[in-house]
Amino acid sequence: MRRQLPFILVFLSGAFMVFQYFVPHESSEFVYEFLLDWLTIIGGFAMVLGIWSLIRVSYDKIQRKRENWGYSVITLAGLFSMIFFGITNWQDGFGFYILQADGLNNPMFVHFFDYILIPIQATMFSLLAFFIASAAYRAFRARSVIASLLLLAALIVMMRFNPLFGAWIEDVANWLMNVPNLAAQRAIVIGLGLGMVATALKIILGIERGYMGQG
Amino acid sequence: MKRSSLLVLAVVVILFAISWILKANQLSATEENYILEAFLITFAAFLTLSVLSFLYKDNPFYKFAEHLFVGVSAAFWMCLGFWSTLVKNLIPRLSEGLSEFFNEPYMPGDYNFFFWIPVILGILLLMRLSKEHGWIARWPLAFIVGTTAGLNFVRYLRSDFIEQISATFVPLLIEWQGVGHFFSNFNLAIDGQFVMMLSNWVIFVGVMCGLIYFFFSKEHTGVFGTASRVGIWILMITFGASFGYTVMGRISLLVGRLTFLFKDWLGLIS
Amino acid sequence: MTYMLRIMLLLVLLAGVSGLAQDQPVADTAAADTATVDPPAPVTNLTGQDRDNDHGHAIELSWTPSVDDLENPAGDRSVMRYRVMMWRPAFAFRVDTLRQMYEMVRNSYKPIRVYKPLVDSALSMVEQGVTSVAQLPFKVQLPADVDMTDVPQDLLRQTLEDTLETMVGQVEVSKDSVKTFRSTFLDSVDALTAAYATYPNNGRWDSIGAEPPGSGNFRHAGSKDEFSPDFLPDHTDLYYRVDAVTIDPDVYAESEIVGPIQSSGQWYNTGRTVVLVSVIIFTIFTILFVQQARGGKELYVRPLAGIEAVDDAIGRATEMGKPILYVLGLGAASDIATIASFTILSRVAKRVAEYQTDLIVPTYDPIVMTVAQEVVKSSYMDAGRPDDYHEDMVYFVTQSQFAYVAAVNGVMLRQLPATNVYMGKFYAESLILAETGALAGSIQIAGTDEIAQIPFFVVACDFTLIGEELYAASAYLGGEPILLGSLKAQDYAKALFVISAIVGFVFLVLHDITGVEWFTNFKEWYRVSD
Amino acid sequence: MIPFEPIRLFAFGGFNVPIVISLLIIGGGMLWLLIRSLKAKEVDRRIVFVFIFAAVSAPLLFEITFDETATPIVKGVFEKIENMPERSRIVIAFDFDPAMAPEVQPMANAVIRHALAKNHRLIFISLWATGQALMDKTISEIIPAEFPQKQDGIDYVSLGYKAGNEGVLNVIVSNVKKMFPTDVNGVPLTDIAIFNGVRSMKDVDMVMAVGGGKPGPKEWVLFVGDAPGGPPVAVGVAAVVAPQMYPYYPKQVLGILGGIKGAAEYESELLHNYPRFAEQDTPGLRMMGPQTLAHVVIMAFIIFGNLAFFIGGRHKEKRL
Lengths: 215, 270, 530, 320
Known about the structure:
The complex is a heterotetramer. Helix content of chain A is 74%, strand content 4%. Chain A is mainly α. In chain A, α2 crosses α3 and α5 packs across α6. Chain A is extended, with a radius of gyration of 26 Å. In chain C, α3 packs antiparallel against α4 and α6 runs antiparallel to α14. Chain D folds into two domains: 80 residues; 204 residues, Rossmann fold, CATH 3.40.50. In chain D, 48% of the residues lie in helices and 11% in strands. In chain D, strands 3-2-1-4-5-6 form a six-stranded parallel β-sheet, with helices on both faces. The chains are: A mainly alpha, B mainly alpha, C alpha/beta, D alpha/beta. Chains in contact: A-B, A-C, A-D, B-C, B-D, C-D. At the A-C interface, α1, α2, β2, α4 and α7 of A face α3, α6, α8, α9 and α10 of C.
């Protein structure tokens, strides 16, 4: 029972979702919307698991004085101060509330977001400009037919920005992006779609059980 | 810590302190909280440079930024989830007293008791933390996986299969008006009949060969093997082209970041 | 009490405004001064019906455009738009007002409760001797002749206490009024159907939308939510009319009235039959091949380079005595790509346990972490080494895309894994991960269903499972022959696709040659309605 | 086939020391890497990073711009304005909002400068309420400073914003005064010299529609350009909208300026023909600088990599 019950639940909820797709009536939609709400709410609870894991791993590192343990102190400090700011608020610097007013508007919370999260995030993202260059340098070698095609297509498309070439290169680049790209995308999409559909079906039917830890 | 690293640290601290003072001096004319503003901008610049320093090699500054980022972002998402999901959506439907506590307008409804189910499932999920009762966490998991699998099953069958079939029906003979007409109007212009037909043929053959490449239960030999080879060629051309196409967007990201450093922090450009 | 007054005032205002709106249509003065347009011909053949295959609350109208339509070169071309009108009982407008008031009362509830604590703290500050209004967290209204920087303590305290009292009263009032308004409102919504039935008395025509010239249909998609301003009751007699309007909004032609029409929800979406058929065919295929596999039939699967690489890479890690890094991507536990990745993880974990290598699994989603822990744990049990498993192999980092990447980058450069496996959903971070891994000298194997990211993995990783290969690998590595049954079903579906496309091609050629319309209509078979 | 022209790096700015130095450093570095590659030596990734950093930051710091070769689709617009007889009437439509402005404002500026330099007459119109402010700002920033002799009402006129979307177009295509009895300052159109002999949009010589939403360039093409006897229409649109306009080229539109690249191409064409604009800001070209340089650097690295790969004989090793 302990083993089977989850799979019965998987089948029931999966089968209902397939069923509701064909039933436009309000009552089926009503249940459907409820189920979607439930999913987000359960997700909210799951956050606790994540934060707990983060705290435990960091604490463990500090306690056992593992390599780089000092940085885990920074992680925990950042975590706790941000949580603190996120659940408190003060208006005009005087009244102080815990959980009473939306902590997302706490000025410190906003500062942390604007001047710590955003700059690091944007910079991490901009690392891509460097990595796209180093990946191109490292990997675009004409070592086989396949690799040469990859290399050539990339070069042609990048040449749009080379002032040495005329308008024709732009036409070729556009054609590459519109025609062969469309064909390949479609082939991948169909394969992928079928793979997903098959996996979803295996899950609903209880054939695929790997995600439950071998049942 | 080694002496040299202490020295580096000291230099960096002094440099950023000077930058802070200069920035504050510059902002004092316009801003009210210029000391705080200047600090925040300088600190953001410090974090930006710390992350960029990773390109040279892993170093204490990157580690600092990384660990700070992890802690702050985890808390950020938790707070966001807490306020937007639990407080805004769940609590107003569960209890009038709790909604009053959180200053959220209570949302009465005839079916509100159904919202206790996800609460129970959520708590069951938390049972994961217990050693003996961890298995209970599979129930909410089963619910989550089952619902999404059902949703994806029909959704992808429709969008990635059925709708792709009709999208592949392209006329391979565009406005075919006979061989004579075709050859008398033969040209390479983009809107010419020849190029449009060629494009449609490439799409059709490309899709077919690409699909054959993805056949798993048949050996890729003979005609099948040739088709599959053409398929992988088309895939590779596409991958190369998308790679090259993406470069522009990535460079723009770096432009944005450098503009922050040169303009907002250093004030070098206007 | 002030609160009730405000509501009364509001009521009066609302009544006044709607009355005004009725009496004086707002005219475009510039156009009225200069342009004189002849009234156009009205639209004809107006019909209306319940929208099919929906949840109700929607009506579809269609008509033949006016002869003077802008798009019709034969006429005056003076019709600039079609205004769709609906007859609404006066009661419906009252329900709208009630709805707005309910929303206002409901929203006013929160500020009061936020400001009350501010007044509380202001009071305690006054007790401590603060006399400047600027220093108080709550700015009270004081008589104009009082010096704001030095207010007599008594006056300040009195004003604050009065404010507090009003606020407390308002909270109680608004709390009650929310409930009252709500039930009144819901009762009146129930009475709407009866009100619509009184047509054509006690109501007026109201504009519900406009269509550009040339168009001949309109979908009145109402909301099923009573609290939405677009709420449209089901099973209710509705009446419509379409006006052909010229550039001057005052010059228009009315059509015939169509009605009564009722909207209702359906129990089966006939537009989705093709999906239902596909679901049935695909399910039969899958079950059939799974049964075959279960019966012991050997199913051939062609070798995939990435799959073989996984086993080699684990061996390599063991030789080097270095760990293996497994990244599940940014997907949620319910994403199919992540579930496929779990299966691959279980195989990797089993091998890792057998070879006694180390495994690192940083995760992005807490539920993914939970599942991955379960998967790794049972793999270790299967391998007969439950003691080697420890919870911290699989840990949560953060739910922020680039913070997660920053942390995984750190792991790659500090713990120098021999092999990095990326399987699941990846977005822009794919290239950051793969390049950092290459820098650390790791062998890298990737697989994702995010089409936009495949190029980056192909370029930067040693082995890449392209698209569907990820699912094939999952079925293959899952270790159970029945999982391979679905691969066969997928191949049959692909064959079906190829056949359909070729048939489509033949039909299109036949259409070009013979000119028979039927040969292009087959496209309709594959149309799925929303 | 390939219109090969030397890169005229310094064509617009004259001799500029920081630009020359930074380009010499980048170019010299690339040369050094080329020599190393010819000796089959691989380049360290950090050197790649340094070059990317330099290639993006140098154009930002020193405003390095590159010559863009105008594609025929852009050149069509330029040459039309260039070859029309003097005193031709050009309608410039400002159908965009501040959010879209960074992309399309450079196009409007370039076309206005070009047309005024050719001594054409301009009529400004906006179908977007938000467009009028941008239009007023553009007029007051460009005309008094750069063309002080041009007079409102004689050389240019602003009709302002009129509500009614494509309905407005449909009226002005047969009668302008019906929709716009006066200009934005309240002067009756009958008193404005530009409108002597202009009854409808069919009497103007060209329309340049700048925008990206609805109503916008597409509506100008369909309602004004396509009307019997309608004027030729050229469009300037945001990059994402450009593909939707291509089907109308070349039959229904003169040319298309698509996104910042289109703007840069027009600016470049303008600078070649009118050196007097060298001092003006060219946001299109400026934003293309880092892109061009970075692309060239990446392409060079790909070529170096392959040189080292083949000269080093590593292509004979079996892999993949």
